[in-house]
Amino acid sequence: MTDDQVKILNGTTFMVSDGSGDVSCSPASPMGLFAFDTRFLSRWQLTVNGQPLAPLSVDDLQYFETRFFLVPGPPTQYVDAKLSVLRQRSIVTDLSERLTLINHDQVPIDLTIRMEVGSDFADVFEIRGEAVKKGQYYTRVEDSHLCMGYRRDQFRRETLVICEDGAEMDDRGFTWRVTLAAQQEWSAAVQVKMSVLDGHGKDVRKALAVGRLTRQDLESDLAAWLDRAPKLTTDWEPLPGTYHRSLVDLAALRYRTLSYPNSTLPAAGLPWFMALVGRDSIITCLQTLPFASQLTTATLRMLSAFQGTQLDDFRDEEPGKILREFRYGESAAFNEMPHSPYYGNADGTPLFVILLDEYERWTGDDRLVRDYEQEVRTALHWIDEYGDLLGDGYVRYQPRNQTTGVVNQVWKESIDAICFRDGRLPAMPRATCEVQGYAYDAKMRGARLAREFWDDPEYADRLEREAAELRDRFNRDFWVEDGQYYALALDSAGSQVDALASNMGHLLWSGIVPQHRAAHVVRHLLGPELYSGWGVRTLATDQARYNPIGYHVGAVWPWDNALIALGLRRYGFHREAWTIAEGMLEAAQMFGGRLPEAFGGYERELTKYPVEYPTASSPQAWSTGAPLMLLRAILGLEPHVDHLAVTPALPEKVGRIELLNIRGRWGVADAFGHGRPPYRPQS
Amino acid sequence: MTYPTERYLLELSRRGHDALLEKVRGTVRIDVAREGETDHWLLTVARGDLRVARDAGPADAVVSGRQTCWDGLVSGSARALDAWLRNELTVEGRFELLTVLDRLMPGYPGARHPRDVVREGGRAA
User: Fold this and answer.
1) Which whole-number Å values give the CA distances from A657 to A286, A311, A568, A662, in the listed order?
2) What CA–CA distance (Å, rounded) separates A272 from A269?
3) What is the rounded average pLDDT of the residues A331-350?
4) Is the pLDDT of residue A394 over 80?
């Protein structure tokens, strides 16, 4: 995503254009109007008297609405502009755009206002390559309508362009010819409706409750959403803007599903992952529980509904497994991609158990915990039966779908992410360290649920015993003695994959690290090889595959850091948790309050500004949630029995941070933090 | 002459209970379009208890498709959600009941336990 791109979104429906509001499509650029993993507009180019328009400014009015101020001609002619062009567009269910032209001249002008329109109906998986479509396109022109369609067997998608006010329609767009008197204004609106047609020719998007919403509904919904969230007051400058941005972006990423149209859950990230991604959704929910726990209810319900039930090699599915990703596009429909849904991930299943337990701890809502007993038991069974590929007590992964499946089925999915210190790639199946931490935590939490809610103390005992065994085994096999850190992974032979990586920071969050080892882990995490000054890098600088703009081999990921900060608090490393939070929130400030998916691992001293990863998604749900988890970490928010425990750890330079109206099992509570002289490190 | 979907549905009614469907309450009418006629089956799920009967009455969800599509689903070689995405199946009413239907279908023929795949050296099926 480049900086001059303008994005508006509403859940999984979104539009990406250039700074003039135009969409022109090349394989490399993900511009267009998208919904249901399909591009419904790949061309949307406005000209006036044959000239393209140049932007003067862009106002982001709301996440679903933006306004472009334009003038005809290339930028050099600004000063001579006698004509202003305003483009105001919004996405509620579909796209609406209003064009307004103002003649500033003293004489009348004849204008030919032309919009070139086209759709390639590309599947989101085809955007990065050259789409070779197997189906047929069709176009119909009727009075004020232009209908573009795509059909493959019975699969059908349609884009309907509707103009008001006497536009001339043709099969490539529409034209208005108007004469504007001196100082006169002209305006017209156009709508673009996207249809995902079912076997009866009905639009399935209509079944979503969002289909009945208006722009005003969205505005009041956003106001209610912000109103429901805790109120932040602070004199620490990096925080308020980022906090507000996070809440708004989370609102923007909420979407509804056909299965449960009455509740919303977070989509993973714009533009590549405007979909349900199990891991991302779970992490986002963990981040947002103290702020907006309603997202978790919908996410748990959706993930449960699609929990694996069968063995399916193509989907890397096994009974009890939580999905990796769910797509509605053509490639999923025709099994060219396995995403309807795809299950290839080793971490989503234990994380699902963790989220359900964490949800009860925050909200006190035990109904969900009782309702999902069967799902949690099945998920815990998955860990031992299907996750443990070698029978040695570790959760591993190895794709059975070797053509379209994911190779590294953990959060660091890049092909080179799981590597030895010297750069070699380990043999499959691989067991990464953080997943063992999740599995340990899932068993511990499962035990709590069994004891407190399911009246099954025997099962609880068994899970705790297994968790203790896993912890001991893990600490024996993963600990790199001569470096005093945890190996990134074990390979197929059980040998340590000895790269120094951020993954071990998650282990603190999971609690699988014995206290006496924590200081060593922390020393590495905050040491010069891993810590950039902004945050913890995915891979240490002295590792063979380190690359500051390597997606998972050097870049800094905000969500990764937020989880690490929470882990540091768990082990009493308050000052270090603050260091991470401070770096990350200062970086956020430089991104206008919106942390991207990832940014470069360059030394902070070197670049002064964090360097955005070239193709990072933004907004990205778990980056959007990261500041919230960091805020939780620095205020030390923890649910404790039936009240909210608050143990702030703020340095002196921060005067105060107040978070009011935190909803949870205690009703509504407030958290106050004041700066204190630096905490002594625990090491 | 009976056909695979019919045999599968009759077998399903004998299964009686499915623990994974204990939260589900609802009826699904399964419309199987065959040459010149449509067979209607009513699947009732109540707290995990299953009942299947020939019935053309109303239901919370009506799922319709050709016999070839249904026969693919009951053999495990096709999945309900994909079939819906391809418009080989249509759903009217409560969409989430399609997921329930998917859960009642058999696994992919020849699909393997991941441990077996590892033992066999990781070759995909």
Assistant:
1) 21, 50, 20, 14
2) 7
3) 96
4) yes
Please choose, from the candidates A373, A326, A371, A374, the residue with its C-alpha nearest in 3D space to the C-alpha of residue A348. A326
Mark whether A131 and A234 lie in a shared domain: no
Question: What's the one-letter identity of residue A87?
Answer: R
**Tokens 């249809």 belong to which residue?**
A195
Residue A145 in any domain: the answer is yes
Domain count across chain A: 2
Task: Supply the DSSP symbol for A385.
Answer: I
Q: Is A338 in the same domain as A471?
A: yes
Distance CA A511, CA A567 (A): 8
Q: Which residues pair with B33 in a beta bridge?
A: B38, B66
Contact residues on chain B for A400, CB-CB shorter than 8 A: 112, 114, 117, 124-125
Among the partner-chain residues A207, A306, A332, the one whose CB lies closest to the CB of B85 is: A332
User: Which residues on chain A are in Cβ contact (under 8 Å) with B19?
Assistant: 374
B53 φ/ψ sector (left φ>0, alpha ψ -120 to 50, else beta)? beta
pLDDT tens sequence across A484-509 = 999 999 999 999 999 999 999 999 99
Per the structure, the complete domain to which residue A344 belongs is given by 229-674
Per-chain mean pLDDT for chain A:
94
SS3 of residue B77 by DSSP = coil
Instruction: Return the bridge partners of A232, or none.
Output: A659
A463 & A336 share domain: yes
Among A143, A177, A212, the domain-final residue is: A212
Does residue A682 lie in a domain region? no
CB contact under 8 A, A400 and B125: yes
Domain annotation covers residue A282:
yes
Which residue in B40, B43, B20 sits closest to B31, CA to CA?
B40
Task: DSSP for A157-172, please give it.
Answer: EEEEEEE-SSPEEETT
Kindly state the helix (H) or strand (E) to which residue A96 belongs, with its residue range.
strand A95-103
Instruction: Give residue for tokens 């929130």.
Output: A585
Nearest alpha carbon to residue A34 among A18, A17, A19, A12? A12
Distance to chain A for B94, nearest Cα, Å: 7
CA distance from start to end of chain B: 34
DSSP alpha helix (H) spans, A453-573: 457-477, 503-510, 515-525, 558-570
How near does any CA of chain A get to the CA of B21, in Å? 9
Provide the pLDDT for residue A212: 67
What interface predicted TM-score (ipTM) does this complex get?
0.95
Q: Are residues A439 and A326 in the same domain?
A: yes
Confidence category of residue A3, pLDDT binned at 50, 70, 90: low
Question: Considering only alpha carbons, which residue of chain A is nearest residue B82?
Answer: A333
Q: Which residue has the tokens 């394989």?
A: A27
> What confidence tens digit (pLDDT) does each residue in A627-665 have?
999 999 999 999 998 999 999 999 888 999 999 999 999
How many CB atoms within 10 Å of residue A476?
8
The secondary structure of A47-80 as a DSSP string is EETTEEEEEEEEEEEETTEEEEEEEES-GGGGGG
- Judge: B64–A310 Cβ closer than 8 Å, yes or no: no
Residues 6+ apart with CB under 8 A from A471: A440, A512
The answer to whether the Cβ–Cβ distance between A386 and B108 falls below 8 Å is no
> In a mutagenesis test of the B interface, which of A384, A400, A454 is the best target, namely the one with the most B β-carbons within 10 Å?
A400
> Average pLDDT, stretch A77-99?
88
Instruction: List the CATH number of the domain containing A335.
Output: 1.50.10.10
Q: Coil, strand, or helix at residue A193? A: strand
Domain boundary, last residue among A157, A183, A212: A212
Domains of chain B with bracketed CATH: 4-119 (3.30.1050.10)
Tokens found for residue B32: 């199987």
What distances in angstroms separate CA A64 from CA A7, A13, A214, A446, one per listed residue? Answer: 9, 10, 11, 40
Find how far residue A198's CA is from the centre of its chain. 28
